[in-house]
Each structure stands twice: as C-alpha cells, then as structure tokens.
TrEMBL record:
GO terms for molecular function: peptidyl-prolyl cis-trans isomerase activity. Residues 1-22 form the signal peptide. Coiled coil: none annotated. Residues 188-286 form the PpiC domain. It holds the Pfam family Rotamase. This is Parvulin-like PPIase. InterPro entries: OMP_Chaperone_SurA (IPR050280), PPIase_dom_sf (IPR046357), PPIase_PpiC (IPR000297), PPIase_PpiC_CS (IPR023058), SurA_N (IPR015391), Trigger_fact/SurA_dom_sf (IPR027304). It comes from the Bacteria. Keywords: Chaperone, Isomerase, Periplasm, Rotamase, Signal.
Length: 437
C-alpha cells in the first residue's frame, strides 16, 4: 500500500534543531508550558511538545511514524529511525501551528473534502476507501490521525492563498521571458527529473542545511529510494508524488539547476545546489531529444475503466474526466469510481500513443474529449488539457500557474517560519523513547 502523505513545509528532519525554536516563554494567554500540560489532562511524561495552548503527545509521534513507515513501504533502514522520529515530531509541531492559525481565521474543511482526498489515496493504491480505513485499523493507526493530517494539508494552502494571493504577481514579461528561454532551447534535450527541496530559512545556517542534504544523499546510497526520501523529507509540493517533476525542458529550470542536469548522466543525483532560497537535490531519471519541431504533442487527462463494470457505467464514469481536475496534475478532486484509473500525460506525441487510439486523438483540440473506446478489457477516454503544434512547450496558462504556485509556496514557507518565531514551542525530548525497529 502507498500513502501519499504531504510533508509539512520545512520538515527536513535533521536540518534544524527542534530545541532551537525561538519561542516566547508563555502563550498569548500568559500560560507557561507546564500550565498548558496541566490544563490538558495529559500526563507530563506523555507530552512530546507543547505548542502554544496545545500538546503533542508521544502517542501522536508514534502514530505519525507508523504512517511514514507505511508510506515508505518499510524501506527506511532502522538506523534512520531516530531521524524519522525527529521529523515526525517536527511535522506535528508545524501541523499544530497550522491548525491554530487556520482556526483563528475560521478556515473550515468539509468532511466530504477529506473523504475525497482519502479516496484518492486509496485509488492510487488500487483499493477502496473502506479497504484503506480497514488497513489503517489493522496496522494500529488511528483513522483520526490521518484525517487530521489531510484536513490540515487542505486548509493551510487555502489560508495562505486567501491571505497573500494579492501579493503574488506573475507578469507577462516573466512568462514571456521563460517561454523565450524555452524556445531557444527547444531543440535541446529534455530531462525526466525528481526533486528534494530543502528551504534555507536562516542563511547563517546554510552550511548546516547543506550537510543535512548530504545526509539525505547518503541515505539514498544505502538503498533508500529517492522517491521515499522526497515523500518524507522534501518541502516541495512534489513530495506527495515522490518528488516527481515529470519531463522538464532545457532552459525551464533556473540556470544553476539547468547546468547541473545537462552535465550529469542518467541515473545521477546532484549534490545540494543553492537555488531561490533553498538547496535542491535533483535525480536525473532519463533524458530524451526534444519533440521534433512541427510534430504535434498533447497533454492529456487519461482514464480507463474495467470493462466488467459495463458500458453504461464506464461511460458515465469517464465523462467526469473534464471536471476531475486531472489537468492540474494534482490529486483527483472528483472520484471517478472504483475500478477506474487515471493518468496525467504531459507532452506526448501521436507516435507515443497506441496506434489503436491515434485516430481518436489526432484531430482533437484543447478542451475536447475523445470518444470512449473499448479495447483489451477496458474502456478508454482522453481529454485534451493542452495541445502544442510543434515545440512541446507548455501553454502560457500552465506556465503562469507554475510560477504562481512557486511564489505562493515561498510565501507560505515564510508565513510558517514567522508563526514559529511568535509562538511558544517547548520540545520535551526527555519523554521521547529511542525508536526501535
């Protein structure tokens, strides 16, 4: 089973000393951490941290570690468990800060949205929501623990966007400059990349962040897959999909990253590279020549339904592709139903599409959906998110959205850092037992 747990912003486990949170000595109500613990009713020995007027228990830490281990399919080596524990605690501290801030601004997440997100997690593991919840129960994980994590992951971006979207300005010049650079490099290689992002919140500690990045690379050398490291330790939004950036065109990355991926062979992992206020670690999974100029390429939202569900039910499910937000490249927002799989296919040429389906795709334009085709025991349909007539470049809208999301994410990281500085956070390391295998 695979859970796509969203790593909290800045959750690089050993890059920051948890006891180094710069905190007030009392809450806004004037309570000390001991008074908060006494009021909570939780035994002092079971408190892992106090975050303003809330406590994080050692039970919470163990629950989060179990979720991480399931997400990693047990591929985290035992020697990394102390680091995993540290990350789990830091993740929970940041989660509490986010919960308190979203509560203050009355950001609510309907339970149906949490259910939708859990349904997506289940679908990506080819199981139903009920099977997912039963699996949690069998492994000793509280359903509420996962629901709280998902709820916070939905609410926090909504708060950041609601408060700061007016500060984000993506100019036409910025989009055009990026597109022009990509046009110039259109006949050069494309790279299939994955990323781990390590935000450098305090420039004076840059060397510590760099060393932390090297420790992550060392874990990969010992056999921990890059995708697992990204899921658990990256602060980028791609952490949810194992750091997968998809195919990136030459010139699309900042120059310092672009140079590195051009020079390294397939299968390489870069050292931490300083870029835009963070250290970036990139994995070069594959390289390919650019799309031949003049050959159309498509960005498709594809869905396939098992023929056993029947033609009418399959067609009804596949009709939802247009409104399921697959084109955003993010998690599905509308459940297509059990037995229906989906994919986001970026910049594929007709030659890369099964010849049986090419006639149904080649004449479509942006916003068109193909007919439903039955073949090989499945019903198939594809929706054209975008179409490029020659260079394989993303649309202006898609590129603007990428730049916007990157800028908003940077603001969100700073927002959280500001909350940390203004808050009382008391880490009680003496209550944390060394994790065992």
């Amino acid at each position: 089973m695979r859970f796509f747990s969203i790593c909290s912003v800045g959750c690089i486990l050993f890059l920051a000393n948890l006891t180094a949170y710069a905190q007030q000595q009392t809450t806004r109500e004037g309570l000390t951490s001991d008074e908060v613990v006494a009021r909570s009713g939780v035994p002092a020995s079971a408190v892992a941290a106090v975050v303003n007027d809330a406590v994080v228990t050692t039970y919470d830490v163990r629950q989060r570690m179990r979720l991480m281990l399931i997400s990693a399919r047990g591929q985290i080596p035992p020697e990394a468990f102390p680091q995993l524990q540290a990350q789990a605690l830091q993740d929970l501290v940041e989660e509490q800060l986010k919960i308190q801030e979203t509560d203050q601004f009355e950001v609510t997440v309907p339970e149906r949205e949490v259910d939708q997100e859990l349904t997506v997690m289940a679908a990506q593991s080819n199981i139903s929501l009920s099977q997912l919840l039963e699996s949690l129960k069998q492994t000793g994980i509280s359903e509420q623990s996962l629901r709280q994590q998902v709820r916070t992951d939905i609410a926090w971006p909504q708060l950041v966007q609601g408060r700061y979207q007016d500060r984000v300005r993506v100019s036409e010049d910025e989009v055009e400059t990026t597109l022009e650079r990509m046009r110039e490099d259109a006949n050069k290689e494309q790279f299939l990349l994955s990323e781990v992002c390590i935000p450098v919140d305090n420039p004076s500690q840059a060397q510590q962040y760099y060393q932390g990045g090297l420790q992550l690379i060392e874990q990969m050398r010992r056999g921990v897959p890059f995708a697992i490291v990204a899921q658990q330790f990256s602060a980028c939004t791609t952490a949810a999909v194992g750091g997968d950036m998809g195919w990136v065109r030459a010139g699309e990355l900042p120059p310092e990253l672009d140079t590195a991926v051009r020079e390294l062979p397939v299968g390489s992992v870069t050292n931490p590279i300083p870029s835009e206020g963070a250290f970036m670690i990139l994995a070069i999974r594959d390289k390919r020549e650019a799309v031949v100029p003049g050959e159309p390429s498509f960005t498709l939202a594809y869905a396939g339904a098992d023929a056993s569900m029947g033609g009418n039910a399959a067609r009804a499910a596949l009709e939802k592709i247009k409104t399921a937000e697959i084109c955003s490249g993010s998690n599905l927002r509308i459940d297509l139903g059990e037995g229906v799989g989906y994919s986001y296919l970026e910049n594929v040429t007709l030659g890369q599409i099964n010849e049986k389906f090419r006639p149904f795709i080649e004449d479509l334009s942006r916003g068109d959906q193909s007919a439903v085709i039955e073949d090989g025991g499945y019903y198939h349909s594809a929706y054209v998110c975008d179409k490029d007539e020659g260079l394989g470049l993303p649309s202006r809208d898609a590129l603007e959205n990428r730049i916007y999301s990157r800028q908003l994410s940077r603001i969100g990281r700073q927002y959280l850092r500001d909350l940390e500085r203004e808050s009382m956070v008391d880490i009680r390391e003496e209550n944390l037992q060394p994790p065992n295998g």
